[in-house]
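Chapter review: from sequence to fold.
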Amino acid sequence: MTKQITSSIMMIRPVAFRFNEQTAVNNYYQQVLEGVTANQVQAQAQNEFDTFVEKLRAKGVEVVVVEDTLEPNTPDSIFPNNWISFHNDGRVGLYPMCAENRRLERRDDILTILKEEHNFTINEVIDFSHYESEGIFLEGTGSMLLDRVNKIVYAALSLRTDAKILEDFCVKFGYKAVAFTSNQTVGTERLAIYHTNVMMCLGEGFAVLCADTVDDETERIALVDSLEATGKEVIYITEAQKHRFAGNMLQVQGENGEKYLVMSASAHQSLSPEQVEQIEKHCQILSSSLDTIEACGGGSARCMMAEIFLPKNA
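The token string follows.
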């Protein structure tokens, strides 16, 4: 039976995490930390990563930690969900990345590690990365929110989320797309949000949504209607909360079937008591400080976790 959430995730432990100039072109969440050395940024990010992993494992989540390598230089390797996805039929998706230095994150040895060291079954690899030669991109489950049970993919179209590749994904994996445009205010302009998982998240019985980013009323209504038609309670967040990564959350399963909505401390602190109550009707909240990772990387908790739905060998 298809599940929406998993108890197994893959994470990449950083060795040279830093501000990535190539992604900062259209990721308006990234910041240069003044007065902090590169070594200090890496040390802080690694400490945040290790603490986060400890909290997940303490709840019974299986975390496959893969060490990053110094070469090639991949400052954003801590966000693996953008280049790979794992599916319950044993298939793996590989995705085209906008930033050239992020393309170097794709590692064949990770598939070997999952098979040989962790007993996962991989039947087929579906590689979309050839679209990079056309200058179009689809950045994994950053670009696409997968309703795995109902076979619906939600996608905010942008430079990093191309409609042509989205259609190809839907054909190959058997999904139907609900596509829309999601914007944020940058200076005096409304510019496309770079990843869908910044403005919404999907849980089993709920969705967290920053509906105010969908400026087109028809698209906004269609998005909410689709979520509600599949039985999800829509929990609305504001644009200010989105900016603190309150949309960048992931529901996971721990010991004894216990479920958690995983987020950063910043996202957690931004939530109102009413929003917390709405979430806790569905599952517990698990949060951890990711301040350095959020500031320099422009991504948060969800981006750090690549869900593993692959079957395990008997």
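Two observations follow directly from the output. The domain at 8-307 is CATH 3.75.10.10 (L-arginine/glycine Amidinotransferase; Chain A). Residues 22-32 have pLDDT under 50 and may be disordered.
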